Structures
1.
Amino acid sequence: MARSRLTPERESELYEAVLDLLGEVGYEALTMDAVAARTRSSKATLYRQWGSKAELVVKALRNDKPVHLGDLDTGTLRGDFLAAMARTDDCQMERNSALMRGLSHAVHNNPDLFQALRELLIEPEMTGLGTLLQRAVDRGEVRADNPALRYVPHMMIGAFAAREMVEDRPVDQAFLADYAEAVVFPALGV
């Protein structure tokens, strides 16, 4: 049987419902039945389109990030970083941080979720960040042998994790911009 395609509007509606449910009940308690009920769709349709709860959740998170990092090219690394930060408002950033915190606990008990997160969200983001950094090297903004290049993902993930733990405050655009200026760019020699 041919896989019927959902309209982009319907797909976005489903993803939004999944993220809402995820925020309300967490990954463990999220069920395909609950998603089906919330979205007035059949469980069979959900499984046909996404195959598993893990894939549906991760694709919903991915859908929430309309711009891929590798597509940003302002002509400077600083401009690319600022453009990346500007694509998500503070409210969205806080929501995403809360969702990722919830998922970081769930990955320990759900290898399928961990696999889906790596394949569908983390690896594409790392690839995009790699593209962004490689362009900076190609333009001569960053030395190719700069040892900090390989730690940029760690720095950015650390910024998200540490802000909440150290200051008990959510990450926002102002913090990320300041962090990039104080930590990331100096480490890269920009």
2.
Amino acid sequence: MPAGADKDVRRWETCGQAWIGVLRHVWAAGEAGMEDTGPIIEGPPVLFEVTSLSWEDPILHEHGDRARLVRRAQERTRRNVRGRYWPRLHDLQGNDQIRWVVELLRARPWTTSAWISLTIPGEPAEGLPCLTALSFRIRGYRLIMTAMFRSQNVHRGYLTYIPLREVQVQVADELGLPAGPLRVFVDVPHVHVADAERVASVLAAMPEPNAA
């Protein structure tokens, strides 16, 4: 990487390493906070990239929620399971935003305008998704995707990152390109105080830094 380029982007090879790294980020720099669901430990904003994401990640299987991992992996094999964000990606007020991105990038592969929002102006705060936007761009003959979260409980963040990778691969396949790293920005990364003991146990079991 050239000197000074993307110096604020943290990079990890696997989803499991990213999960541990972001947990450690919140644990080390977090402060007491409050969310609608209760007290949290709130960390500073974080921007990171992950190269490889899989439901078979060994760190996730060892220290993550195995039951949820198995259930999510099984769901993805069923064609009728669309995922929680499917309506906002493919039918937001009648617009298939993913189809729009593919057509735009085919016509203008250099563009920086392949950016879609998952929010609706004026919608109730209770219905506002944590994932607010996706950005797609072609650089170095690869499709780069950035996911923007207004807030995220990073204790279970991996359950969102892997499906997002599937969205990125879907668009890349439509364009006949390989998928580059998945980039993620979380404005308010946090863990619930109720999960603090479990988070501490995971970090104690993975004492070495996982950043690449």
